[in-house]
Amino acid sequence: MKITITGTGYVGIVTGVCLAEIGHTVTCYDIDKTRIKKLQDRIMPIFEPGLEEMVINNSERLSFISDYKEAYRDSEVVFICVGTPEKKDGSANLKYVYDAVQQVVECVKSDCTIVIKSTVPVGTGDNLDRVINQKNDTKRFEIVNNPEFLSQGTAINDTMNASRIVLGVNSAKAERILRNVYDGFRQKYVVTDRRSAEMIKYASNDFLALKISYINEIANLCDFIGANVEDVALGMGYDPRIGNRFLKAGIGYGGSCFPKDTKALHWLANFNDCELKTIKAAIDVNENQKIKLIKKARKYYDSFRGLTVAILGLTFKPGTDDLREAPSLQNIPILLEDGARVKVFDPIGMDNFKKIYPSEIEYCNCIEETLEDADICFILTEWPEIVTMDVSKFPFYMRNPIVLDGRNCFSLEAVEGKNFIYESIGRRVVG
Ligand code: NAD
């Protein structure tokens, strides 16, 4: 089967390489020529553990091209993996999806199955089907919704061992084709209509966002009443009806999915005059949570003017170079505006951050250099380098050893009696 992947971002490149791994011949196309050139030279445009080795190992079956006519001409199945970013009003911007699908329809020689992997609002597949198949009587297009559930940082394992493959189809033929494509994975299928598949993606992501916001609110209350949110989460998580994942309190979720997918579903619900109040709450809680450390810092300093602030971690989570909606992007502008000197360290994310802040902040080579002379330290991402550091470095290097940990990286026992003030999320203050 001739498979083309459209878009070589986090979803496209991982989908492409995993399909090659199970034996398919895959062509990946991206509108961004620099990205394709890099991939042709085996330089990964994104950081994703294990990706480079897998691309190299599958070189024979995997090609990268920047000519869309060539990419689509003989395709039998095209996976659309382009971005669906948030518009100003919160709704999903479908421009990239429509543009890509239009090029497929124009260029492909004969019948083709177009698989929408991008997260798209309910009804998108039906609209595409109507518009495309009405206009074409020579070629027939099957439109499938096949949402993606991978997490950045564990994307390859998530794809090779997905918890389920959701197929939103409206013909037996489309289902058969997709089952053939995915045959090598041997995973559980959920086969449904396109609208339900589109809804499964939003409902899943928004549920996880809601779970995070819920535990964050519980953590905020724990701060006031003297309970420990980690023990609370442990006690809750043993209940199989609740489960222990996504119960880690912190300074909120970021990334390319949860923030935009909560807003997009909320927008769609309002558009249908059916507001989702729980999703609205998740969005609001998360906005406040992202600047929780700034609020905690105000206890120690009225203003940041003239202070040196050390920031450990910039990416929205460990294991990725992605900065989309990362709390660092909310916190650092506030600190700069207030006149702070900001020093940062992130093992992977600094190159991307430099594209946004080329000169306003100081980029450090290691944790120690970042902490030197700092008046306060914010921990924004739980990178292994940070979680495993020797905490006695805080009082050793900092001018005023006050550490605000937005990711609960250390146990309270580990920081007890170490001569610095340590505040985390939903746990008592130490020091
Ligand atoms: P991304 O921004 O990393 O990559 C999108 C790529 O598409 C870019 O390289 C861009 O140049 C390319 N592109 C745009 N228009 C194109 C066109 N007309 N033809 C060819 N290429 C084009 O996006 P992503 O993070 O991979 O996400 C893609 C979709 O998958 C989104 O809808 C997202 O919500 C969804 N999703 C993402 C994740 C994730 O963890 N990143 C997980 C599940 C689902």
TrEMBL record:
Reactions that this protein is recorded to catalyse: UDP-alpha-D-glucose + 2 NAD(+) + H2O = UDP-alpha-D-glucuronate + 2 NADH + 3 H(+)
An MF annotation (GO) of this entry: UDP-glucose 6-dehydrogenase activity
Keyword Zinc attached: no
Single GO biological process annotation from the record: UDP-glucuronate biosynthetic process
Binding sites annotated in the UniProt record for NAD(+): D30, R35, T84, T119, K260, R324
Pathway this chain belongs to: Nucleotide-sugar biosynthesis; UDP-alpha-D-glucuronate biosynthesis; UDP-alpha-D-glucuronate from UDP-alpha-D-glucose: step 1/1
EC number: 1.1.1.22
Enzyme active site: C257
UniProt keyword terms in alphabetical order: NAD, Oxidoreductase
Enzyme class, UniProt record, top EC level: oxidoreductase
Family: Belongs to the UDP-glucose/GDP-mannose dehydrogenase family.
Protein name as annotated: UDP-glucose 6-dehydrogenase
